[in-house]
Design goal:
The chain has 17 helices and no strands. The protein is mostly helical. The radius of gyration is 22 Å and the shape is globular.
């Protein structure tokens, strides 16, 4: 398992480097406002994907070892088409809302009230559809424990995104949010097409489960997972919504850039949790699943904390030099966000544990606890402290979420808080596994 974690971490590290390069070129050649619009488009796609992922999301990792691949393929594709068509219908209906009514909502909610930036409705729908198909390939490969193949597809996706954005900027001379948005579409499309070559053999396998029964099970499992994802995404969307309402797209661009850099160490928790979910979903021993989770939780939190410390001690002048003076406020925002990123690493491990043992309701309850904290904290902290207040609010929210998850995890598995302490044995075991991996 340690080999898979290191392979996934290497992929995530490469992704972080590509994101950094993309961020550098975006801040220098597109500007804060364009970067803010691009960030909102990406977040809107994430929110709309939640509807698709009720049946065609991370729950596929759990069902891939248990259900016919053909059946999962049919359900996911049909559902993706139906949901995107539903979104298109909603957008079409909303286009007929009279200007005086839409002006009233904008006045009441602030100038950030619009959900999708003007002119990006069609491409957002296309992004949602293509990514949903690409995500099917990624998640089912994880369910098959083909983590290496999944990582290769992910690398193809983000490398294509980075290279295509540079092409749009320097060859086609696109110097607005389109360069970033078009690069997302290019990366998703190439990643999806390459993924088809990996899943094709599974589509030839015999066996078909009842679609009705499979849909019922997937919807029950996926509904809880995606409701928790929706609540978690709303936590983030609300902060951008309020920042935009007070200060406009430029400040959203700065906050988005700070979030991207500060959340880079999150790749440690993501790498660990991804392998953890794939492993636990194929286990029947809950005691072993809890033991694995405890060990991985300590590893994720310690390594994330070390990385964040390094990121936060970098002087403000360095960030101004890297991303221009318009992004000088990044560092103080990142310091406010950093405790939340550590808590997010723990949250990822807990979430994948509860999903892997078919008990995802606690992810939803934890997200709701976080939302209950988010709403008052945002309105109390953003007006006086701006983007820093949003960062503090995010940290408080993630702490409330993992506090709930830890209480439940402790109760279910009869684990004491002492078991969370990092011991010499833990360190020796980690070094031994890394050493054996290097020798091999």
């Amino acid at each position: 398992m340690i080999k898979k974690i290191f392979g996934t971490f290497g992929t995530q590290a490469l992704n972080a480097i590509c994101n950094f390069v993309t961020l550098w070129f975006g801040t220098h050649y597109l500007g804060a406002e364009a970067w803010g619009i691009g960030g909102i488009v990406l977040l809107d796609v994430s929110i709309m994907l939640i509807g698709v992922e009720f049946l065609a999301g991370s729950g596929l990792i759990y069902f891939t070892p248990r259900k016919s691949y053909r059946t999962l393929f049919k359900i996911s594709y049909i559902w993706s088409v139906l949901i995107v068509a539903f979104y298109a219908l909603l957008i079409y209906i909303f286009s007929f809302i009279p200007d005086n009514i839409s002006h009233y909502f904008t006045k009441f909610l602030g100038k950030g009230a619009e959900f999708i930036p003007e002119g990006y409705q069609v491409i957002v729908l296309l992004l949602v559809f293509i990514y949903s198909l690409h995500n099917f390939n990624l998640t089912t490969l994880l369910g098959k424990e083909r983590i290496g193949a999944k990582n290769k597809l992910f690398i193809i996706q983000f490398m294509t995104q980075m290279c295509s954005m540079l092409f749009y900027i320097f060859v086609l001379d696109i110097r607005n949010a389109d360069a970033f948005v078009f690069s997302l579409l290019t990366g998703y499309t190439i990643g999806y097409l390459c993924g088809l070559t990996q899943i094709w053999p599974y589509l030839k396998e015999k066996g078909n489960d009842s679609m009705r029964e499979t849909i019922r099970e997937m919807f029950k499992f996926g509904t809880i997972i995606q409701l928790s994802t929706l609540v978690s995404t709303l936590n983030r969307r609300l902060s951008l919504f309020i920042i935009k309402g007070f200060w406009g797209d430029a400040k959203v661009g700065v906050y988005n850039a700070a979030t991207q850099v500060s959340e880079a160490p999150k790749m440690i928790g993501q790498s660990i949790a991804m392998v953890q979910f794939s492993k636990i979903s194929n286990l029947t021993d809950n005691e072993l699943a809890a033991k694995i989770t405890t060990q991985l939780l300590k590893t994720a939190v310690v390594l994330t904390t070390i990385c964040l410390f390094i990121v936060c001690i970098i002087p403000t002048s360095v960030y101004s030099w890297l991303f221009t003076a318009n992004f000088a406020e990044m560092r103080v925002v990142m310091i406010a966000l950093s405790p939340g990123v550590v808590f997010m690493a723990a949250n990822l491990v807990f979430c994948h544990y509860f999903s892997g043992v078919n008990n995802p309701k606690h992810n939803l309850y934890g997200a709701l606890v976080g939302l209950a904290v988010t709403i008052p904290s945002l309105y109390l902290l953003i007006p006086p402290f701006g983007m820093v207040g949003a960062g503090i609010s995010a940290s408080i929210t993630h702490f409330a979420t993992i506090l709930y998850q830890w209480i439940v995890f402790k109760k279910i598995n009869k684990i004491s808080a002492k078991e969370l302490l990092v011991t010499k044995e833990n360190v020796k075991m980690l070094f031994a596994e890394v050493k054996s991996l290097i020798i091999k």
